[in-house]
Amino acid sequence: MTIIIAILQAVLLVAAAPLASGVARKIRAKMHSRTGTSVLQDYYDLAKLWRRCEVREGGSGLVSRIAPPVFLGSFALIAAGLPLAMQACPIPLLGDIITVLYLMALPRFIFSLAAIDSAGSYTAIGGIRELLVGVLVEPSLMLVLFVMAVAAGSTNLGIMAQAVGTLTAYPFVAVVVAGVACAMACYIEMGKLPFDLAEAEQEIQEGPLAAYSGPSLAMLKLGVSVKQLVVASLFVAVFLPFGAAQAPDAGAVLIGFLLYAVKVAAVLLVAAVIENSVMRVRYKYLGRYTWFVVGIASLSLVFLVIGI
């Protein structure tokens, strides 16, 4: 039963990711007083890219070829292991925070390595920017998950979700502050403003995207959308597990899936509103914002140590 739930989670998140991206784009258009494209536009774009021939740069090597499936597959694995419908991980091995952190770091590493592997200089600049965001946000996320592991007594995300859901995670203030820091870190990981890359600068957008075409570009674009949904799901699974099933019962799991969909939709809506309410800043100033997140994450560790 748990294996089936894990497969369903991965399939549903991959299938729903373009819809979530399309809805966010529609919200942006409405807030800018524009009509905007259809919420299904991402599906049309992906279908068009899958039908096209693939063209590769002459200087690209093996890394550039394996980057798209590795990027998409890593986040699909994370989706399969998250405690979304239940307060337990369907696959405990994939639900450990060490595994999750490594699986989140692997796509960024491959993404940036592929940018260097390509023959273009602009894609390398995009890869460096991707690494910069990772260096700025990953310490906060690691610190928050460490605080939650100590508070719940386990590095398993399912046990963390169960501890939060039953209000047994201690100390309470440290958990709340860690939740605030995690929300901010996840917002940055989702690539929202001002931590995104300008859509008009296609030559440096999301690292090596400009070096790909056809099915490889489709996998990367789908992977970016899946990443946003998986990161939002990680926050919901750990800090908003209320309503998730306690046992792998079909009816309870179905209700858990429905409540998960409502919670993640609310999180994505808030993220979309915030994204369209802030301005874009220069990349060299991003550290001023991310250090604030590191400070809140460190504060949760202080509260954990003193026990409040």
Description:
The protein has helices spanning 2-31, 41-51, 62-81, 97-117, 121-152, 157-165, 172-189, 214-239, 250-275, 286-306. The chain is an all-alpha fold. The protein has one domain (2-306). α1 packs across α3 and α5 crosses α6. It is found in: Membrane.
Shape: globular
How many E-type strands?
Answer: 0
On the 0-100 scale, what is the average pLDDT?
A: 85
Can you write the helix and strand succession as a string?
HHHHHHHHHH
Major sheet, described briefly?
none
The count of domains is: 1
Ranges where pLDDT stays below 50 over 5 or more residues in a row are 198-205
What value does the Rg take, in angstroms?
19 Å
Number of helices: 10
Q: How would you classify the helix and strand content by structural class?
A: mainly alpha
Estimated share of beta-strand residues: under 5%
GO cellular component, one term: plasma membrane
Pfam family, one: NADHdh
InterPro entries: ComplexI_Subunit1, NADH_UbQ_OxRdtase_su1/FPO, NADH_UbQ_OxRdtase_su1_CS
Keywords: Membrane, Transmembrane, Transmembrane helix
Main attributes of the structure:
single chain; 308 residues; mainly alpha; 10 helices; 69% helix; 0% strand; NADH_UbQ_OxRdtase_su1_CS; Hydrogenase 3 membrane subunit
